[in-house]
Amino acid sequence: MFIGHFALGFAAKRATPRVPLVVLLAAPAFADLLWPVLLIFGVEQVAIEPGITKVTPLNLIHYPYSHSLLFLVIWGIAFAWLYQRISKQAEAFLVLSALVVSHWLLDFITHRPDMPLYPGSARYGLGLWNSVAGTVIVETAMFAVGVWIYARATRARDAVGRWSFVAFVAFLLIAYGANLTSPPPPSVPALYTLALIGTAILLVWAWWIERHREVR
Ligand SMILES: [Zn+2]
Q1: pTM
Q2: Residue 216 carries which DSSP code?
Q3: How far is the CA of 108 from the centre of ligand 1 (A)?
Q4: What's the gap in Å between 1 CA and the centre of ligand 1?
Q5: Ligand 1 centre distance from Cα of residue 115 (Å)
Q6: Do 97 and 80 meet the contact criterion of CB atoms below 8 Å apart?
Q7: How far is Cα 115 from Cα 143, in angstroms, rounded to an integer?
Q8: What is the DSSP letter of 185?
Q9: Bridge partners, residue 177, by sequence
């Protein structure tokens, strides 16, 4: 899943309005932030096999440290603990750790059976990615609700706050569409390079948006 993860981050603004959007988006996407780094170091493995699912050409061969349920629980606790230490906001602990772990559930729904419970376990997945229409409907509906909740929970302080947010949402939708329709990445290094650059842009952008918006 792609924009569906961000949907939960946007929606969480209502539950934890003091937590910055950049943190709320990084939490549910944490597995996919860690994943390209582990690919670079060869700790996790992926292969590009067009046709392996209708939506993605990725054969996610081995990714227990970024994507197993056990590790996402550990990362969730670590992420929430670190945020609590830095921000002194104890109330966000449960929401942030749940957001990190939510990645497993959403990927379990979308992926073919490649999601481990723990390193070396059997792997599970309901395979929503075998249907392009099903994937698009579920994910864009989630995204629309999440963005709507965020838009209601905050307001723009100036024009930058309004239009940077609108442009961010549009950019995510365009990137999502491009992801569905473009040819497979030419190589695994191209894949992780794009993932890292894309992530960096999105996180800086999310940070910038909230310099121009405030909680209602
Ligand atoms: Zn993932």
Answers
A1: 0.96
A2: -
A3: 9
A4: 6
A5: 9
A6: yes
A7: 23
A8: P
A9: none
**Do β-strands 45-48 and 58-62 pair in parallel, antiparallel, or remain unpaired?**
antiparallel
Count CB atoms within 10 A of the CB of residue 211.
Answer: 12
Encoded amino acid at 178, one letter: A
CA of 107 to the centre of ligand 1 (A): 6
What's the gap in Å between 31 CA and the centre of ligand 1? 6
The one-letter amino acid code at 189 reads P
Q: 43 to each of 38, 99, 178, how far by Cα in Å?
A: 5, 24, 28
CA of 143 to the centre of ligand 1 (A): 16
H-helix segments, the chain: 3-15, 21-26, 30-40, 64-67, 69-87, 93-110, 132-153, 159-181, 188-209
Question: CA-CA distance, 202 to 171, in Å (whole number)?
Answer: 9
pLDDT at residue 76, rounded to an integer: 98
**Residue with the two structure tokens 């490649």:** 114
Distance (angstroms) between ligand 1 centre and the Cα of 216 equals 32
- Ligand 1 mean position, distance from CA 192 (Å): 13
Please tell me the distance between residue 214's alpha carbon and the centre of ligand 1 in angstroms: 30
Segment-wise mean pLDDT, segments of 10 residues, the chain, 216 residues: 96 97 98 97 97 96 98 98 94 96 98 98 97 97 98 98 98 95 95 95 97 96
In whole angstroms, what separates CA 52 from the centre of its chain?
Answer: 22
Give the distance (Å) from ligand 1 centre to CA of residue 175.
Answer: 16
Report the separation in Å between the CA atom of 180 and the middle of ligand 1, taken as the mean of its atom positions. 16
